[in-house]
Known about the structure:
By secondary structure, this protein is α+β, with helices and mostly antiparallel strands. The protein has helices at 14-40, 65-73, 106-119, 129-143, 188-193, 197-216, 227-237, and strands at residues 43-45, 49-54, 60-64, 91-95, 98-102, 145-148, 166-170, 172-176, 183-187.
Amino acid sequence: MYKFFPLNYKVLGFFSKFQLLALLFALTLIFEGTHCAARETGRETGGGGAYVCKDNKGEYETTFLDLWEAENRWSITPKETNISFHNSPSFSVEFGNLVFFGEYREEFYDTLISLYLQRTRSYGSPHWFPQVAFDFWLSVKSKGIVAVDDSLDAPKDAATTPPDNCKFVGVFSWEDNKGKKIQLKVNSTNFFKLRSETQRIAGFLHEVVYKTIRAYLKNEATIKDSKVVRDLVGCVVYDSKTCNHFDESIFKEINSPAPVDIHR
Length: 264
């Protein structure tokens, strides 16, 4: 055995080095297979991010990526609803274990998300798309949102480079559990630092639209990243009439609304 696979480094030659590399490669494949199997039981997929920027007064402002790009890439004027949930904790709204306190009820989120989904029809979505996506939102809201304190990776497909006074943070991330319903993980710290309710709703809207579109695509490879969804979210949330940059062709790649399990 020693002569076949010598480990005496004084006599290591080309052949023995080749054997070592082969062994290392085999071990790598075994490890990767085990790692992939582990990921199948709790695989995290991409989610939404936000820019945290410091202004001239030294104060920080957190803006969801979709709306930051709408403002800074396409010069769309923000139209936001800002309700301070810290000032009047008279109501409590709980999505999973993500708890809101403020002067609004759960219907506030439902109403605006429904409105924004209806606006997607102005940008080419099929007539059935808003209702299907809204039903998915109701399902995720009731069972699939989990607040986490640990950091989430920021998305890697941002179309812009943040200014020097900004950093990029993760806010949302989907976790696919094999054989179970997926969960939407929310970094509660970054989520509540988003500068307005509009920003937070845009985050949920992005995740719902992205998952719904991917579920109904004829070819899932058609959408390689979330850029087209970010463009759409910026248009419908800010109700812009000049969203010529949005690529409506994505909706032409969607199948008819046959029963599809979006929770995948």
